[in-house]
Amino acid sequence: MLKPEYPYYLANKASQPNSDLEVTDKYTGKVATRVALADARAIDAAIGAAVAATEAMRQFAPYQRQAVLEHCVMRFRERQDELAMALCIEAGKPIRDARGEVSRLIDTFKVAAEEAVRINGEVINLEISARARGYRGFTRRVPIGPCSFISPFNFPLNLAAHKIAPGIAAGCPFVLKPASRTPIGALIIGEVLAETDLPEGAFSILPAHRDGADLFTTDERFKLLSFTGSPAVGWDLKAKAGKKKVVLELGGNAACVVEADQRDRLDAVIERVIFGAFYQSGQSCIGVQRILVHEDIHSEFRNRFVAATRKLVAGDPKDEKTFIGPMIDEKEARRLEEWINESVQAGATLLCGGKRDGAMLEASVLEGVASDQKINCMEAFGPVVTIQSYADFDEALAIVDDSEFGLQAGIFTDDINKAMRAWDRLDVGGVVIGDVPSFRVDNMPYGGVKDSGLGREGIRYAIEDMTELRLLIVRDHD
Fold first, then answer.
1. What are the start-end ranges of the H helices in 172-211?
2. Please, where are the H alpha helices in 254-311?
3. Nearest Cα to Cα of residue 205 among 226, 188, 222, 223
4. I need a surface site. Which of 218, 258, 362, 372 has the fewest CB within 10 A?
5. Mind listing the pLDDT tens digit for each residue in 339-389?
6. pTM higher than 0.85 for the full model?
7. In terms of Cα–Cα distance, which of 289, 274, 305, 307 is closest to 369?
8. What is the rounded CA–CA span in Å between residue 82 and residue 406?
9. Is the pLDDT reported for residue 478 higher than 70?
10. What's the pLDDT tens digit per position in 123-132?
């Protein structure tokens, strides 16, 4: 269970100036714990501490950074049951999904520990013409400086980890604002970091309301802003960020294409698509939202998929049998219920689901959704999918690309030529062959194009954003 109160972390130290932020159990709606809430003065102090720690973090040797990250891996393993239950309560995440996220938290810090000691440069041959004879070039990567991190509610542990872990590996002091609805996971990470010998001021973790957290975006002392969240908020923050580098991991309405050559393995395909569409109640930016099935197997796939969806157990996320838990709050569930109703009124067929009870929304499947309906062209971010048929693979690719988003796409096909054609043509950050777009391993480059964001997460790729390339030129003397 959760503690009655949690402090925030300012310049590596726990501080409990208040208990103003209520964190609710997303299933019961009751207050589960209270958290210290940072004001503008605390945020300003944290930024100042990060600036003061910049040189100490630059001098903090790679093996020392690695030791910090390895300590975190050890402590997260020791506290994994506590971390999973915290996720289950504060995010309403079914306990099996919560355990999976804890395992990914551990993976992310483990990969960062490995990468911390291999941030290398290169030797450049500058002798491309006679005028450069005797010149040698060398590069190295140096920390960019103080970083601002803003993480979302849906993966409170692992998406915070994808900022914190590479930040430490790169040698950057940081200030993190976790989502105010789900701050506990990040604060437990802070508790573990406070056990290490990171330089004073190297990290601060400060829950804050969005309307009081402008400094995370606008303060010029930050050299990088890394934000994960909704597209509307992300692009607005970029516009306000000034001269700092900005990395955005935003939303999507990911599509999954199922070719006719999958007929003999439909059970396995449906199992994966069910997972991709409805795991953690569909609240994932790479969750399957649009399913495109070849017309030769469309009816069979649809009927079996709907039957499997109806069998999903919804309820208390603490129950081991639960697959569908609550959405993050009733407002979001009500929004998605309205989108479903709008689509039906516009001519779509609701094949199953559609009913809401508070923050609980049934796993829902629609067919015949018009392309301009919100449930199709916007990010649903909940347990809802649409199904449609197609006749030609290139037609399917065009439908996938007919979106303002471009995060990941999933293609089920045994045809290598079609797989490569999808990789060549689709305007997305990643194409997954033989699985759903929801697949992610924490060392891969992850991110999107179009309205889905800028830059890439995945430890090595995040380190590239959190470092600057510095060139050395040496002229030989005869």
1. 184-193
2. 266-278, 298-310
3. 188
4. 372
5. 999 999 999 999 999 999 999 999 999 999 999 999 999 999 999 999 999
6. yes
7. 289
8. 35
9. no
10. 999 999 999 9
Q: Catalytic residue positions?
A: 249, 285
Q: CA–CA separation, 93 vs 66, rounded Å?
A: 31
**For 115-144, what is the HEC assignment?**
HCCCCCCEEEECCCCHHHCCEEEEEEEEEC
**Mean pLDDT within 418-444:** 97
Handedness of CA 442, 462, 380, 280 (dihedral sign): positive
Q: In whole angstroms, what is the distance from residue 184 CA to residue 411 CA?
A: 36
Q: How far is CA 347 from CA 78, 369, 412, in A?
A: 53, 7, 28
Query: CA 4, 27, 109, 440: dihedral to nearest 10 degrees?
Result: -170
Which distant-in-sequence residues (6+ apart) come within 8 Å of 94 by Cβ?
A: 88, 280, 281, 317, 322, 323, 324, 325
pLDDT band at 213 (very low <50, low <70, confident <90, very high): confident
Residue 163 and residue 463: Cα distance in Å, rounded?
9
Rounded Cα gap, residues 173 and 194, in angstroms: 14
**What's the full length of the chain, in residues?**
478
Query: Smallest Cα–Cα separation from 451: which of 369, 388, 354, 377?
Result: 377
Residue type, position 61, single letter = A
